[in-house]
Amino acid sequence: MTDQPFAGVVPPARPGLILRLAGSRRFQAFAARVPGLRRIARAEGAALFDLVAGFVQSQALLALVELRVLHRLQEGALPVAALAAFAQVPPERMQILLQAGAAMGLLNRRRDGRFALAPRGAALLAVPGLVAMIRHHPVLYRDLADPVAFFRGQTDPELARFWPYVFGAGATDPAVTAEYSALMADSQSLVAEDVLRLVDLSDARHLLDVGGGSGAFLAAVAAAYPALALGLFDLPDVVKTAPQRLAAAGISGRVALHSGSFRTDALPQGADVISLIRVLYDHADATVAGLLARVHAALPQGGRVLVAEPMSGGARPDRATDTYFALYTLAMQTGRTRSGAEIAGLLAAAGFTGIRVLPGYRPFVTSAVVATRA
After folding, report:
1. For range 140-169, the mean pLDDT
2. Residues of 192-206 as b/e, b for ≥16 C-beta within 10 angstroms?
3. pLDDT at 166
4. Taking a C-beta distance cutoff of 8 angstroms, is the pair 122, 129 a contact?
5. Closest CA to 216 of 194, 253, 180, 191
6. CA distance 372 to 351
7. What is the C-alpha to C-alpha distance for residues 267 and 253, in angstroms, rounded to an integer?
8. β-bridge pairing 206-210 and 229-234
9. How confident is residue 237, by pLDDT bands cut at 50, 70 and 90?
10. Can you say how many angstroms the Cα of residue 159 is from the centroid of all Cα atoms in its chain?
């Protein structure tokens, strides 16, 4: 299989020929025998099979996380029997799971048969919010169980009911609100890290974070810009979760808390920068248009809006954002993953000028768009 699928060795000026050759079993077999072409053929075959087998890898990853195998190996290499007893999995099945983990680069198999944590596995555990995201994935997996029906719009996605307050003015269950806020906050440090590399706020006076949850992004901004006044605006049930985090960050006195719904309420005045961090892709165009109009109204002349979230590659599709995030937001049924150009268009329609799209260092974490109120 890995020697067969083939593309990319003929000049790009002949796309029709490329497709005919790539689709020819005879040419695939020829390429697999020629030293100069064999490497490319094998790479293409491996990439194709990786697409075919990707769902199995994600499930093996989920098992490693749920069984806390990676966590257990932080203490050092262990034999299969010890890990099997720890996870309450039959040894022969644990062997298969550990082999899969090693094949994915998360584990190392020692010569004595023991398994150890690999650098990639250690990095996975160190990335804020990544384990929580993986543990959250079964909801999405269930929604994609029948992908044909899903794309035809014939399913009732569970994700569409998972975060109820995204649909309206308030949460139906404070526990759900707390779970959502915690999941977002866990990964917000990575987002803040990349946003603050992309955007310079040194000339800002007052930043209002709209849809800011428990204040994780503001905590990062406060550390980077000690003189910057800060404000947080979100739904009442969400804002209630903020004081503890802000107190832990030592910035309670710097952050003004504002409760309301950006669907219906005017935003607080006084900020010269308003941030929307991972907000727009949760909502439909009509909701986003209304929100951007409120942002425009709340800003003074020369004030700026900052939008940051994973964005579609648009004309150059991005593997991470145009698969994972696009399908996730489609399952949520409330918003969609937009390209930087689409967000720029929505900002222009709201009256903003000087719009700049800032591609992210890690697009799967975030990119940014900034604009000015004329």
Report:
1. 84
2. bbbbbebbebeebeb
3. 52
4. no
5. 191
6. 9
7. 21
8. parallel
9. confident
10. 15
